[in-house]
């Protein structure tokens, strides 16, 4: 085992990353809301000793109202789903996306702390600010239609939201539950405190309703690649799941992220960098490409529509055998959508002069795509890991559950044989898997600083 | 089996209804946040073929900040906890309390629909408007400290909140998932629709992110006994969990509730009335009273403080061997707290001229209390059920898990032998247990009205 540890999560985006995943012969179109499907996927991930299962989210159908759906949506509430998986698994980390734009910090602090208790230390919150324009229409009040604020406003709110959540997680000392049955004293005097937060967005008294959870603080992930996202990650995140389409981009991103981390007074290696890795896997390279062709034929023109939606361009502007539109390659200011991810896809297409068809064999919904044999997938992982560009990946198989099963049965053994990945879980918490310390309570941190 | 069915839920209020539950020799003060404890209790309830497990809630510690806790709080987020229990049980209904005052309807609609999918049709939402004054301090925005609105405002918001949630639950038709893998058509054209709600409090476009759930609509419970609560229940509720301290009160309440139900155009028996039933159970009456005395001695003066807090009076105004204070008995207007429940406790004390000590052997935190042998508890249940005052009870054992285990092992067999209660589950959904129909989709309801 090398001294640096490889970390692997799995991003379960309904039936798979490929637009035609639900059409694959083995797939059932109703799996996306079926508990048996989700439990099977989680247990497969645990069989592969993966660090965590990751759920993306947005509170809308992410498309104009009235249009029929071309694929299963991100349907289930992530926290409800992760809580269901908590009692069906024993070691797997459980990472859920929740936007800071449509919730109250008290509720989110309480919900992730509850999940951390009930999973015995496996909860993580992936903080997003919501670039989905349709979500805002579901959260208006009275006469006022909620409108998407500027990116800067969203990130200011996110930072304050996280401050409140962390203060609430610290509102009980570690030893607050005295439990003196004889004297009838349940909690220790002075050990449960208000937070009295007064800020630009929130006004929260506290304390939280429950004791500090097994991890001290549930793990914080951050997924955005824009300057605002990078800054938020450098300040708060334990892990980052941002798209990286090429090794050069990933290296530059890692360097910038680690610099920001240091600028916020944190250790340079405080953050686990785990971008998405999408893959189509076969027992041989030829078999992988056959599987890829089969899926692409099922998806047909929808692949192009998916790319257009990600780049916020009109599908009519894209042609299979031409480069991206010139105005896009020339780098007009990006104004909507996931800024960082979009830039990275456009950069890749520009630098390597790819046609749309070639680009679609290199990235899938913003993320690096690898098509090949188990050895080739393992090589792709090892290359970026050894280069120091990443600490691991968030796996995004083409189709669930078979894509993940193939990975666990054929790629994980190679990574283990190369001394890159754990043979069994050595910890019971997600912080343990990620080689991160439990967060000590407020009083202990003050003592440590004074000592 | 009689034609009317008895319905039994269990209200798991942290370690038990008795203020000294956590001090009982068998109890562990840390159970309230321990998944193993909750899973054990849920499986015991399922062994007893109970209809459901019920979780009360408030997003605060429900006491002035800074004071140490005298008992375990309602710590865990109810939805997170119920979702964890969903995959650890197979038949038990899962009822969670969520206030309409601190959440967005889109999130709540989505969360309960998700739980209904993941539990395969066992989810229920207990709607409250929050009388807890401390909760408001956790949900202020910017400079503005959130203040508790009037009861009327709270109930107007609750009604509109429920309207939005139900419209979102109806935003997909039952057959919306077409799943045509050959043509690549995932959803049926025109089967997923916006709700375009514009009201006093909310402005929500929709549709929801997920298909209609197994029950059509998750079950709606309502817990308040004030006029506003009764009205909300008559209009929307499938089940009611409001405190009733005497048979006379329960009969009057049932009559009023059924009249309101009819006034809203619903069938007279549309609602399952299931007030709380607290009990201290022994193999003989003497043993039950010994257990009661033992618990009371552990609690000491805290029993009196608990009663004072429920009645919103200064503990110094209460004396063990005197009646309640005259001003309270004379029925000054109630202004805070849970109005209906408080009135019912004061009425009982007035009508039967009880001292504080006698009152505390008849009610516990607002609910009917019975102390006795298995036969006596069964008699107490049968009496109110046969009188038509209730459809069943929400059980509130003195101490968990032993109080529930005693009930399941010794009272349930008596109720079964008397033909009052099911011998095994005959349905897989909570609506099935409660003898309520699945709610058909919007289109089917329109067709039924036209036909």
Automatic annotation (TrEMBL), chains A, B:
Q: Which domain of life is it from?
A: Bacteria
Q: Which UniProt keywords apply?
A: Flavoprotein, FMN, Monooxygenase, Oxidoreductase
Q: Name one GO molecular function term.
A: monooxygenase activity
Decide whether keyword Oxidoreductase is in the record.
Answer: yes
Q: Does the keyword Nucleotide-binding apply?
A: no
SUPFAM superfamilies with a match to the protein in the record: Bacterial luciferase-like
CDD domains this protein is in? Nitrilotriacetate_monoxgenase
User: For binding FMN, which residues are annotated in this chain's numbering?
Assistant: 57, 97, 155, 226
Q: Which residue windows are transmembrane per the record?
A: none
Residues forming coiled coils: none
According to its UniProt record, what is one Pfam family this protein matches?
A: Bac_luciferase
| Domain Luciferase-like per the UniProt entry, residue ranges | 33-389
Member of which family? Belongs to the NtaA/SnaA/DszA monooxygenase family.
User: Would you tell me the protein name for this molecule?
Assistant: Monooxygenase
The organism named in the record is Mycobacterium aquaticum
